[in-house]
Amino acid sequence: MSSLTPCPNFIGGEWSQPKIAGTPVYNPSTGDIIAECPAGGPAEVNAAVEAAHAAFPVWRDTPPVERARVFFKYRQLVEANFDKLCQTVSREHGKTNVEARGSIFRGIENIEYACGIPTLLFGDSLRNIARGVDCDTINMPLGVCVGITPFNFPAMVPLWMYPTAIACGNTFVLKPSEKVPLSAVLLGQLLEQAGCPKGVFNIVHGGRASVDALLTHPKVKAVSFVGSTPIAKYIYDTGTKHGKRVQANGGAKNYIVVMPDADVGKTVENLATAAFGCAGERCMAGSTAIAVGAAAERVLPDLVKAANAIKVGPTDRAAQPDMGPVITGAHRDRVLSLLATGEKEGAKIIADGRGVKVADAPKGFYVGATVVDGVQNNMTLAKEEVFGPVLNVMRMDDLDSAIEQANKSAFGNGAAIFTNNGRAAREFTMRVKAGMVGVNVGVPATMAMFPFTGWDDSFYGDLHIQGKESIQFYTQQKVVSSRWFGGDVGDVWKK
Predict the structure, then answer these.
(1) 10 Å Cβ neighbour count for 95?
(2) Where is 288: in which H helix or E strand?
(3) Residue 40: what pLDDT?
(4) Are 9 and 210 in contact (CB under 8 A)?
């Protein structure tokens, strides 16, 4: 156990390595155990929340410009340790170096957004709303906020949450995924170096026991979550029942409509990136392509060639593959099982990644890029989020049918259309039921200044992560009405 990477909690400005046996952390590229995430619970959670609660009054009253300076320094430190962060993400998740770099760049964008907090916190003001009465709105922090994050983006998703929350004047407790805790630890170490005061930011590890303790703790005011839809619903129901604000992002089945006039080369390139990037382990993955009319015959042959050409391999070394492993052996087996079910239900696998072999990493958790044609709405592959490098293909006669199919989904994260026809693009963007829409953009994930706007079963809550909505989520408005009366004693206004 001494050779394993430490995975400490960070509570009240102190790092401590719990001795409680927890969850093994794998290097998915090799199948080796590289760390053990401790099993936390009510005691650790209570200590972290109490530390955050104690730090809140001073941090709340710290001028926003001073809070922003912490994040200016933090940005410098994250950039200085960029390669180390990339290596950590790749090692514990399996992302390629390119994917890890991209995800951390997106995280840095959120740090940069937090640096603008003095302007973002501006309230409203109106003089003389009544005679001699002025009115002002003030955006006040909430108190202790919580982030519960998933395995698929070990650095980016936490950075969606705590920079904005802390810059708004809140304190924060992060509970990272027990599958990928090491990136969060490194990010916490850098935030400490940036001068974040003790107790303002805390990390507590663990599984469900830690989550439940955070959701029910009376001093927690708000909870941010990203993960699967069943857990998102549980987080939302439990958190709101206990009086918390909750933003809970769930799963997705994102449709990409390909029209007959689409540029073949660009469409194939974007489909491959959307479906197979990050080994399909992202809630914005393009999981289903709907080929309209002659689009199937134009696009599928090149798409199959592109899928078959994707090199799969370990991401923890200098020579990089096109695609890395999935997160665990159990998850690999689930993906393979869903593909087997798809075949039994009548779908046809036209690019088969199930038999992929990686000679220099035989124990890694690999699935190759896979394309499944003839998927129907009643099939398991069409209903369940695969969360792997699998692209379903459906065929429709016209755009109306394609939109109707996309809108049957219970999810509503993203949708995209590939076309050179402006009318078709406009019709799609107006009618498709999804919070983020791409026109010739396969993964329409937003940047830090825009909200991540999932709909339906992809999101539970009222205010989304990122952008102006995140400022609203992490603050509450105070409205001050004021009137001033003159006095006789010391009245310098009268002669």
Answers:
(1) 29
(2) strand 286-292
(3) 86
(4) no
pTM of the model: 0.95
C-alpha 117/C-alpha 493 separation (Å) is 38
Q: Kindly name the residue from 86, 168, 196, 283 that is annotated as catalytic.
A: 283
State the Cα–Cα distance between residues 495 and 486, nearest whole angstrom: 14
Tokens 């392509």, residue? 289
Q: Tell me the CATH architecture of domain 254-439.
A: 3-Layer(aba) Sandwich (3.40)
Report the alpha-carbon distance of residue 393 to residue 406 in Å, rounded.
12
Annotated active-site residue 283? The verdict is yes
d(CA 203, CA 51): 11
Residue located via tokens 């809070």: 67
pLDDT at 21: 77
Q: Taking the domains of the chain in order of start, what are their residue ranges? A: 9-250+458-480, 254-439
Q: How far apart are CA 451 and CA 156, in angstroms?
A: 15
CATH topology of domain 9-250+458-480: Aldehyde Dehydrogenase; Chain A, domain 1 (3.40.605)
Question: Per-10-residue mean pLDDT for the chain, 495 residues long?
Answer: 84 91 94 94 96 98 98 98 98 97 97 97 95 96 98 97 98 98 98 98 96 98 97 98 97 96 97 96 95 96 97 96 97 97 97 94 96 95 94 97 95 96 97 96 93 94 96 97 79 60
The DSSP letter of residue 226 is E
Q: How far apart are CA 150 and CA 50, in angstroms?
A: 24
Calpha distance 223→244 (Å, rounded): 7
